[in-house]
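Budget justification note: compute hours in this period were largely spent on complex prediction jobs such as the one shown. Inputs:
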Amino acid sequence: MNSPGFNIAAVERDTGLSKDVLRMWERRYGFPVPERDANGERCYPADQVDRLRLIKRLMDQGHRPGKLMAASPEALAELAPRRPQATARCLPEDTAELDALVALIKAHDAAGYQQAMQQRLARQGLLRFVQDTVAPLTIHVGEAWEDGRVAVFEEHLYTELTKRLLRQVIASLPPGTRRPRVLLTSLPDELHVLGLLMAEALFTLEGAQCIPLGTQVPLVDIARAAEAHRADIVGLSFSAAFPARQIPGLLSQLRAQIPPSTTLWAGGRGVTRLAAQDGVRLIDTLDDAIAALRDWRPTI
Amino acid sequence: MNSPGFNIAAVERDTGLSKDVLRMWERRYGFPVPERDANGERCYPADQVDRLRLIKRLMDQGHRPGKLMAASPEALAELAPRRPQATARCLPEDTAELDALVALIKAHDAAGYQQAMQQRLARQGLLRFVQDTVAPLTIHVGEAWEDGRVAVFEEHLYTELTKRLLRQVIASLPPGTRRPRVLLTSLPDELHVLGLLMAEALFTLEGAQCIPLGTQVPLVDIARAAEAHRADIVGLSFSAAFPARQIPGLLSQLRAQIPPSTTLWAGGRGVTRLAAQDGVRLIDTLDDAIAALRDWRPTI
DNA sequence: TTGTTTATTTGTCCTAGACAAACCACCTGT
DNA sequence: ACAGGTGGTTTGTCTAGGACAAATAAACAA
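Corresponding output:
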């Protein structure tokens, strides 16, 4: 068990904190203080990387770095599960059911999870399944991940299995043929795709024609795709992790590049706190997405 | 049509060239030379970004930056479609069939593409479908993209539709129950998933039990997942775009973190030029992957 | 209490230098 | 002619510290 330590690039990959930030924190707060290798380069021991990951999690929850750096390790651990009013959104019995599904993931029982989800789908029907199971479950898992109750790889497994399920369901629907044609995608740095899949499932159910481009499509290429597919609507998804400050600028850039007759929608946790913007419809919830779809009328 | 230009972070996102590299090239080769905004920060015009993307593509093909920077734009364009022995891998009639599939994508005919692929699947059976259709088609599309014959969004559509197809096929197979248990995933910065899905399809067909974690899982979490799922094999995928020089270090780090009884496999275009390494099996082709699976014996 | 101004915090960008690993070209010995 | 070593060049990544604007918190006014 040699512990050669991680170089700064490895820490950036593992924590999501940029090299600039890592160096700046060291300069400003005196943490992390990595050792140095023979070349004088930073060499982070594993325990500091672990602590950095915890700090990153807490920051994503809204804590500020200055406080976190000053806090003792114990104080940090105390801070973790603090969550104001989050779980109050669901009824208690629903929470229990969601917890049961999360428990399957935490038991690494992929088959059991898939079976349970299939049962729920059959019982609830697609519309309610997406709205009452997949959507709250995704939030639930996200929160559990933020609190450290669910490991990163468990969250990945959840995402992967759920993606499959949704794609399978979508494939089993009669493909939408009516307008509007909806182009669904996300920008670079945004890799959360579950929201897009939920929207696609609901839109396809409504008979609309969806063009799924997957995630991380550069702005210019979204515009080109919109034109090539003669899309009526371009739907973008922004997760809570997406740097919110960049969103308005990106949206107006895209707005300028697509034809005026094409509607631009932006949805996901990342846009809920955003101010309204000309030429862009912000979608807060899945209900809102369906409502917006029904509102749509050809502009020509 | 204002063209405010891209800041250095946007260019990093869009080209995959790090900020350090962009600044270094400017210093050394005199390209790119972005304008400066009011704060003295770099502001890359769109045409320079386009050229950088082309350069990145050519570098992934093995060209060296020094030459590319010196070359005139025309020389660069000349260089692009030059492809030594690539398309010679397939028989001519196969190439024609692949071209027909690509044509469907370029015509943005998602339904037609899916139907054509389903037909091929039915005709060839899963094993040959993956080996003789999906794998060469993916290479074909990748090359067409590198040469600029296929747009980015068309490549995204291809990937998304093919992902769905493969996942659907995998779901329709009886889930593997026998050992080995194979954990399939990729590291952060690696988002190509088609190779993993092809492997999963073939492994599942062989009766092995696959645990798909999706892409971009941090090293530590792969190790934790391997332990939690008691994986016999950890299979990683590296695309050609992944920084090859980092791979050996990453593999040996992961090797140190998983139990000795767990086998480590690395596959994908990114590892074909790599030197052999202790404790890691490099998988060159899908055939090789199947052979490796059949070779596997419990270590205890 | 609410709105506005000032102060602090925080991330990102900047320049410019150093160096190791990878690569190429040349030279040598078989 | 060709395998193998050797030295020079190319190339990416790291380092240090400085600067500044956007976001947030704090102080103050109405």
